Queue: 4 jobs
Job 1
Amino acid sequence: MNSDSLLRAFALSMLLTISVAPAFAAPCGTGSFEAWLEDFKKEAAANGISPAAIAAGLNGVALDKSVLARDQSQKVFSQSFEEFSGRMVPPRLARGSNMLKQYGSVLGRVEQTYGVPGEMLVAIWGLETDFGVNTGKFPTIRSLATLAFDCRRSDMFKAELIDALRIVERGDLAPPEMRGAWAGEIGQTQFMPSSWIKFAVDFDGNGRRDLIKSAPDVLASTANFLASHGWQRGKDWEPGSANFAVIQQWNKSEVYAKTIGYFASQLARAP
C-alpha cells in the first residue's frame, strides 16, 4: 500500500470513528434549545427511557422564557416566623379542621401505616396548595426542560426531567396532566419528580400514583416522604426535635418549617 493509499485509509478510519462516536448532550445554554432537546432525547434513551415516553413527553416542547425570568429573579426568603405564620395559618385553620374531619378515615389509615399524624399532613397540604386548590398551571416538562437548558442548575434539572419522563413511562400521569409550579413541582403537596418517583404511593388502590387528583395518594405519599426521612411515630415536632429536623427535609427554611409545625399544633388543638 503506497503513501496515498495509507492516507486515504487513515482518513476513512477517522470518518468511521467520528460517525460511530457516542452522542453527548449539548452543553447547557449553547446553541438552540431545539438542538439541545434533540441531544437530550438521546441522553434520556441512554438512561432507559422508552421511545414512546420520550416522544410523548418531549416532542414539541419549547423554551419558556417566563420560567427563566422567575428563576433569575428569586428573592431570598426574608419574612419572620411571626409575619409568615400570621399571614398563612389563620386563613387556613377552619378549612384545615374541616379537612381533618372529612379525611379522618384516610388519615387514620395513613398514620397507622407511616406513623405521621393527620394534623402534620393537613398542615403541609394547606400551606403548599390551599388543600389542592392552587397546584400551579405551568406545564411541568416544559419548565424542567427550560431549567435544564439553562446553565444555573442544569444537572439537577436534567435529572428531574428524566424522572418526569419516568412518571409518564410508568403510567402515573400523561404529559398534559403534568402541570404545577414554575420550577417543576407537581401535585397537591408539590413533589419534584424525583420525590414522586421515590415516595409516591397508590393509597386509593386504583393502580396509579396520582398526586394531582387523589387526596388519599397525596396524603399517604407525603407521609411516606416524612417517614422515609426519619419521622418518629408518637413524638412531638417542636424546634430542636428529631421530627422538626424531618420537617426541614421537606423545606429547609426554618421559618417555613416552624410554620408547618405551628399550623399542625393549632389543628391538633382545634375542637
Note: Residues 3-20 form the longest helix (18 residues).
Job 2
Amino acid sequence: MRERGYGRILNTSSAAGILGAERMSNYGAAKTGLIGFTRVLAAEGAGHNIKVNAIAPIAYTRMLAHAVDGAGRQDDEAAQAILDDLVGQYLQKLDPALVAPVAAFLTHPECPVSGEIYTVGAGHVARFFVGRTKGFYRSGLSVEDVRDHLDEIRDEAGYTVPRGPADEITELFATVMDRPG
C-alpha cells in the first residue's frame, strides 16, 4: 500500500469493547484492541493515502442469534410469545445488509476520513470518538485533590477530541503553563 500510495483498511470492532459488556471480557478486550490498531495504522498510513477506519456493527448475525437463544425463557407461554414477537420485530430491522453501505464508503477511494470508529445498525450510522475533558490541575496533585475535584475532572463540558498523542501533550502543557500550581 505504501509503494502504491493508496490503501483502505476497515477493521470490525464492537460496542462490547468500546462501551463494555458483562461476561465478555475476552471478546471486548480483543475488539477494543482493534481500535488502537486502527488508530495507529491510520497515523502510519496518513502520508501514503492509506485510510484506516473501524466499524462497530449491530446486525442480526449467528452470534446475536446465539445470544438471543441463550437468554432466559419465560415460564408463561403467552408472555414468551409476546417477547418472541417483539424480539423478532426488532431483529428484522438489524439486517446485516444495512452495514454494507458504511463498509463500502469507508473503503472507497473518495473516503476522506481515517482513524475513526463508526457504529452502524438498522440503517443508522454514528461516530464513536475519544474525548478529553478540561480536567483539574494542581502542581502538587494529591489523592485528596482527585477525590475533591472528581466532578470537575469528569465534567464533559468543553471537551476536546485530540487527534493523537501530540495533541494530548500540547493540551497538557497548555494547561500546566497557563495556570500557577
Note: The chain has eight helices and four strands.
Job 3
Amino acid sequence: MKFGLFYEISIPRPWTRETERTVYNNCLEQVKLADELGFDHVWAVEHHFLEEYSHCSASEVLLAAVAARTKRIRLGHGIRQVIANYNHPARTAEAIAMLDLVSNGRAEFGIGEGATRLELGGFGIPAKEKRAMALEAAEQIANMMVMEPYPGFEGRSFKMPCRNVLPKPVQKPHPPIWMACTNRDTIKVAASLGLGALAFSFINEEEARTWSQSYYDIIRSDACVPLSHSVNPNIAMVSAFSLHKDAAEAARRGQEGFEFFRYAISALVTNDTVPGRSRLFERFQKERSGGALGADAAGTESLSAAFQQSRGIGTPDDFRAHVRSFEAAGVDQIILLQQAGRNRHEHICQSLDLLARDVLPEFAAKSAEREKRKGEELAPHIEKALARKTRMAPLADADIPVVRASVAKPVVNRSAG
C-alpha cells in the first residue's frame, strides 16, 4: 500500500490579499514534511475558476516547487486537463517531461477533462464531447513523449504538424499515466486503456472491492488495449484524513473540512454561480448548522459519530484498520484529503507525523514484496496488452517534412564585378 497527499488548494471566503500565498506556502511545507516522513506521492489538481473549492489552476508550477524542496516523493498531476482548449497537447508533453527531468524521474501524469460548466464553458468545450477530446489528446501526448520526431496529427479536437517535441522524460517510455475516475464505469474505461485509476469518490470497503475486481479483471483480459506506450495497473483512492489520539478531537479538526469538500463538489455542478462573488463556504456553514448536511457541528458525541461516516478521520488504530480494509480490497494507494475548508496547517502536519510514526511502518514493511508478487502475476497480461496496441507509425528520414525558413535567402549576383 502506498500513501499519497491530495491538494485542491481549498480557500474558503472571506480571504485577504495574503491568504492564497499563505495557503500555498503551507502546502509546500506539508509536502516537504511528508517527503521526510516517507510518504510516497503528492497529487495536485488542475481546476479553473472554481472559487473557494480549488485555487490550483497551474499545478505544474506547484509540482516544480515541490520537486525543488523534496528528494523522493513522487509528483502527480491528479489531474492535468489534457483537452487542447485547456492545454495544447504539445505543451502538456513538454511540461510533463520537464517535471520528470527536474525531479530526477518522479513525475506521474493523471489525465482529466473537467466536469463543471464554469470550466467547460470557460474554455468552450462541449460537455458531450469532453471524454472523446480528452482521450484523443492523451494518446497523442504519450506519442509526443516517445517519438522523435512526432509525425504530426489531425484529429477531431486538435491538429499539429510534424515536430520534435522536447524535452523527453527520464522515465521510459514515459511517466506512468493515470485517469480520473468517479464511478465504476470510468474505472472500467481506465482499465480498458491500461491506465492507472485515480478514484476521486469516497466509497466504502465493499464498493472498493467491487471496483478493484472490475478493474483488474479487465487488465487481465483482451479488453485491455493500452492508450499509451505502457500499462500502469494501479488503483488509488481518496480518503478523508485527520488523525489524533482522541477520535473526537480528530473529527473536530478535520470533519468540517471534509464535509465542505464534498459539499463544494456537488454545489459547483448543481448550483448557479456568479463569478467573483462566490458564497460557497457561507452557504455550506448555514446548511451544516441547520442540519441540512446531516451533522451537528457541536458536541463530542456527534463528532465521534461523524467519524463513523467518514472513514479516515479518527485515531491511528482506526486509520490502520481503514487502510487494511482497502488493502484487502485490492487498492494500491490511499490518497489523503487533508487540506480542505479551514483545516489548520499545524493540525495537518501533526496528523501526517502521527500517521508516519504509528501507521506507515506496518505497510512499508510489506510494500516491496506485495508489488513484486503483483508485478510477476500481471507481467504476461501486460505483455499481451501492449502487443494489441496499434501504434502510430514513425516517419522514415526521407518522409520527415522540411520546415522552410521564414526568411528567403538572398540571391547572389555572381556575374557582378
Note: The longest strand covers residues 74-81.
Job 4
Amino acid sequence: MNPYKQFVSDCARLVKNARAFPLGGFPPAPRSAVAPDAPKALFFAPHPDDETIVGALALRIFREAKLNLVNVAVTQGSKKERQAARLVELQQACNYLGFALQTTIPNGLEKVGVKTRQNEPKRWAEMVKVIADILAKHNPRVILFPHERDWNGTHIGVHHLVMDALNQMPVGFECYMIETEFWGAMDDPNLMTEVSEQDLADMITASTFHAGEMQRNPFHVLLPAWMMDNVRRGAEIVGGQGGAAPDFTFAALYRLRKWSQGRVNNVLTRGKFLSKSENPASLFP
C-alpha cells in the first residue's frame, strides 16, 4: 500500500475543512510584556493583512526580542468602499497579535506604485514625506518592508517609498532593514527564519480577522504549505546550493541589511538560518 496517497488525501481534506473554520472573533493571543520604552520595529504593510501573512519575523521580534512592533498601514486597499472596513479589520488583527498600529493619512495612501513615482513627482514626494515623518517619529531599530521585485504593484511601490524616505533621513539615522517576500520570491534572500507551530497558528488566526479578504481568497489556510515550501527553497538559496537542509517544518525568507551613513550596508557574510530556539535579537547587535 502506498502511504503517500493517504498523505496527499489528508492534506487536501485538512485544507478543505479549514476553509469552513470561523473568521475573526477570537480573544487576543497570549503575549509577554514589552517595555513601553523598548526600541521599535516598524512593519510597513502595503495592504491590511500583509502583517499577518509575511510578518513571521515581525512576530518573533515582538515576542522574543521584545521590541515594540508598530504596523504602519501604508494603504487601506484600493477599493474606496472597503477602506474603512479594512482599517477596522486591521485594528482587530493587530489587537489579536499585540501590534501597535500607525496609519498614514485618512483612508491610507493611494496609487503607491512605480507609475506614480515616475509620472507624478509632486504626489510621490508628498507620500515620501509621510513615510519619512513616521521614521523620524518612531526612530526604529528595525524596519520591515517588501523587496523591490515582489510582483504586486503596491508592494513594489512601498519598497521604493520606504527607500526614498530613507534617503531623506539625516545622515546619522540608522536602522536594520528586513525585506519581505510574498507575491514575488526573492532571488537573493540571506535569512531563513524558522516559524514555530504556535506562531504560525497565531498568524493564521490573525489573518481571519481580515474577513472580507479571506472570504474573497482564503489564502490563510495555505500559509502552512507556503512556509513548508520556504524550507525547501531556503535550504538551497540561503544555505547554499547542495547544502544540508535544516530541520525546520515552517519558515519564512527575508533579506537582512542595515541602513547606515545614508546607504545600504550588508551585515551577513553568508546566509543564515535562524532557528526557533535562537532569539532574533541576535540579528541586531
Note: DSSP finds ten helices and nine strands in the chain.
